[in-house]
Amino acid sequence: MTAAQAIATREDAADKAREKTLLSPRFYTTDFKAMDALDVSSIRAEWDTMMAEYEGDNNHDHFQRDAGFADEVAANFSQVSPELRAEFLDFLVSSLTSEFSGCILYNEIQKNIENPDIKALMRFMARDESRHAGFINQSLKDFGLGIDLGDLKRTKHYTFFKPKYIFYATYLSEKIGYARYITIFRQLERHPDKRFHPIFRWFERWCNDEFRHGESFALLMRAQPHLLRGANLLWVRFFLLAVYATMYVRDHTRPMLKQAMGLDATRYDYEVFRITNEISQQVFPVSLDIDHPGFRAGMERLFALQLELNAARQQGGVMGALRQGWCAVRGVATFARIYLLPVKRHALPEQVRLAPAW
């Protein structure tokens, strides 16, 4: 069963990008003064190595279409079903919104601070995310659905997050983005006949950008060790679960997208969770037990509640609103039960940085 609504016009695409739901990518702002005060001297050697990598810009010519792009779209995408088309366009719009969200946040930080280390980092990351968003938007324009990014920046709702919440959420977003993209890329590398759109050919080097962005936030958090102990570990657990739950529900409401690639949505999601758990041990001293029966049952319960919520929204009226409220209450209770499950604990490695080796 799919919740992806058909995106038929540019207005539909823009409305989808502006959408404000629990599953929709958000735009963020933060405390610029606190960001300006960050000190990376305790991880200077690793920081300088990373900044040299950004300066080298190994993907500077990657996000350009090759001669076969349009031919591949014509040959493969013309064969997809209307249902798969709807899910794929929904995927493109949400991916563009997520990438552009990072671009805006990083650009706003670098414009509002003087700290040379953080300013340079944010400029490089905004550069990368701008390329990603622009590349996705090119594919939307193929369907006459290109989004006016300037208008989106002006009209979408912004959420204020303290810097530490930005660190937790953005680190996980970048790392799980890497895990998602590399898992899809490896699958389609093994089964090129399942690649129904050429954009997937760009995923390997693309997700390496995401990986490096995550490394940046890992270093920032390791330079502020108080963010990784005590009561802050409760926030770490919250953001881990929120990111995993959002992905699980979103993927299961777009099942045909994974099926078309020869992937089972549940197995795919748990492979992504496994990779993300492995990676995040570089910075988080706790990880979720994704094999705990309660965790798996909870993910399924959240998905079932999302389907019920979608049906209540379609129903509308007073009864539909009441059903939505009841779904929300049960969703919070389910999330809380999963949150209270035991977690795995481990020591942080001395060496922070990792290579994208998956």
- The H-and-E topology, N to C, reads as HEHHHHHHEHHHHHEHHE
Structural class: mainly alpha
**Averaging pLDDT over every residue, what do you get?**
93
CATH architecture type of the largest domain = Orthogonal Bundle
User: Can you tell me the CATH superfamily of the largest domain?
Assistant: Ribonucleotide Reductase, subunit A
State the helicity in percent bands. Answer: 55-70%
Question: Could you explain the architecture of this structure?
Answer:
- By secondary structure, this protein is mostly helical.
- The chain has 14 helices and 4 strands.
- It has helices at 10-18, 32-36, 44-56, 69-76, 82-111, 116-142, 149-155, 163-190, 203-222, 232-252, 255-260, 265-280, 293-315, 317-339, and strands at residues 27-29, 158-160, 286-288, 343-345.
- The chain has 2 domains: 10-286, Orthogonal Bundle (Ribonucleotide Reductase, subunit A); 289-348.
- 66% of the residues lie in helices and 3% in strands.
- The strands form 2 sheets. The chain has a two-stranded parallel ribbon.
- The two termini are 31 Å apart.
- Helix 13 runs antiparallel to helix 14.
